[in-house]
Amino acid sequence: MESDSRTEGAYDIVAYTGEIDFHHSAKVREDIINNLDKGQHVLVDLYGVSYLDSSGIASLVQGLQHAKNCELTVGLVGVRDSVRKVLELTRMDEVFTLHDSVAEAMVAKKQHRPPDQHTR
Amino acid sequence: MVGTAASEQLFEHRFPASSEQLCSVRQLVRDVLQAQGCGGDFVDTTVLAVDEATCNIMRHGYCGNASGDIILQILRTGGTLTFRLIDYCPPVETCKIKSRDLDEVRPGGLGVYLIQQIMDTMQFEKPPEGAGNMLVMTRKLDCE
């Protein structure tokens, strides 16, 4: 798994490529939380991710919970079918807002505040 | 006359209980499934279930200590695949293994849920002599 970060306004966008599994999930959690701790909203770009396991989902949920505590948001971008299937199986597609693109997430942010997280 | 289909062992792989192994184990399982004519969603979800079960052994059985080994066996009996994961950990308290309520949004606890959703059966059976546990999962092939 590789990652790349960039900032666009109030958002830090963390893009991953490869597979997010138990070996890499701790880094995903650290990336999200470190960006939130800088006061930035976070978009996790999963376009390059072909595999996500339950430990990766756990890291995303930890990021989401941290965001709520910081009154910030975490959104998911570019989710491929193989990853979407896992999110659907675990009903995490109902917890995270899935955006097709970073641009779409930005528009959603402007139209709805806060846009990126739901509670069941 | 109704006969009982014989089991054919398709694959056996022994590897250290290190998370670095997970990627290559997933690829090996994927190769076995594809060699059986499977594809698409069936392969993706079966690989996920085996990966989740393997992770659980690494995390909860060996507690992150990669000095132990795990053996993965894949067998085919008629139209059913059997996945055996054998470890050398202390015996599992099977009553503690359960999936969580999905209405709770919290980290963790989804691995067993995913295995139960994907596989047809999942149970611990008597392990080989000298081993600690043997998790056995089965799934009917959808690609015949």
Protein architecture, described:
The complex is a heterodimer of chains A (about 120) and B (about 140). By secondary structure, chain A is an alpha/beta fold. Chain A has 4 helices and 5 strands. In chain A, strands 1-2-3-4-5 form a 5-stranded mixed sheet. Chain A is globular and about 30 Å long. Chain A starts with a strand and ends in a 9-residue tail after the last helix. In chain B, helix 1 runs antiparallel to helix 2 and helix 2 packs antiparallel against helix 3. The model of chain B has no long low-confidence stretch (mean pLDDT about 90). Chain B starts with 6 loop residues before the first strand and ends with a strand. Chain B is globular, with a radius of gyration of 15 Å. In chain B, strand 4 and strand 5 form a beta hairpin. Chain B contains 3 helices and 5 strands; from the N terminus they run E-H-H-E-E-H-E-E. The interface between A and B is medium-sized, with 24 and 26 residues.
